[in-house]
Automatic annotation (TrEMBL):
This protein's name: Endonuclease/exonuclease/phosphatase domain-containing protein
Family matches, as InterPro entries: Endo/exonu/phosph_ase_sf (IPR036691)
Length: 252
């Protein structure tokens, strides 16, 4: 089984080309560990332009005594996609370049559920396609379908979904019998007592300082920073839960 890594990046405006450079760096890192799935709002209008190299081949090697392309080079071979949005903006060009260079493919307009490449955003300025599910080329055969939902009053963007075929691992839980992981804690909210306990705990000066220090702390923009921030936030949330909820221990 090959692991699938999910990366999240917010691209806020047409002036943030550095975001694509950062995203490309992260893709390069995670692609060595597994497959890539990018999902969300990219503020990129790509029209129906190709996200792969058309008529790609190894024929160029026949015109030279040595191979011009590396041995591991894989020929782009992808089926066309469709889009109701025919506009291409600067962010869209960047996204297409990123997809081509990183062997990623846009799912919109290619699968059952969104075969026409439906609009994903509707504002007073018009409709557009800016929300995408983008996957490693090798994952295209694993996509069951991609779906764009209907617009509703809660957002000017539609909900998008992608369904992938995945192999499931079977775990041997015997390894947990003589370890600290033989059981785990769960927290249950008591509708009558938990709220008051939580408010009382939040009034503690030490607890407030821990939360404020966390909010004001700056974490490094790398894997270590993400792990550090996640661990500290988890500690804060677990502390609040332990002092306000009913604690249950369950065996694996």
């Amino acid at each position: 089984m090959t692991d699938k890594k999910i990366n999240e990046q917010l691209l806020p405006s047409t002036h943030y080309d550095d975001d694509f450079l950062q995203l490309e760096k992260e893709i390069n890192i995670f692609s060595k560990k597994g497959k890539i799935v990018l999902l969300g709002d990219f503020n990129s209008r790509t029209g129906d332009r190709l996200d792969y190299i058309k008529d790609d081949s190894l024929d160029i090697n026949n015109f030279a005594q040595t191979n011009l392309l590396p041995d591991e080079y894989k020929i782009d071979n992808c089926f066309n996609r469709y889009s109701c949005d025919k506009v291409v903006n600067g962010q869209g060009v960047n996204l297409l370049d990123l997809s081509t260079s990183s062997s990623l493919r846009i799912s919109n307009g290619r699968y059952i559920g969104d075969i026409m490449g439906n609009f994903t955003c509707m504002t007073s300025n018009g409709s557009s396609v800016v929300d995408y599910a983008i996957v490693s080329e090798s994952l295209l055969s694993s996509v069951e379908y991609f779906k764009t939902h209907e617009f509703n009053y809660l957002s000017d963007h539609v909900k998008i979904e992608i369904f992938l075929k995945c192999m499931q691992r079977e775990y041997n839980f015997d390894i947990f019998e003589n370890s600290n992981w033989s059981s785990y804690k769960s927290f249950k909210w008591d509708s009558q007592k938990s709220k008051l306990k939580l408010l009382d705990h939040l009034s503690d000066e030490t607890v407030l300082n821990n939360i404020l220090n966390f909010e004001m702390q700056t974490f490094s923009n790398d894997q270590r920073g993400v792990d550090d921030e996640t661990n500290k936030l988890t500690t804060i949330l677990c502390n609040l839960a332990e002092n306000s909820c009913v604690i249950k221990r369950k065996k694996l």
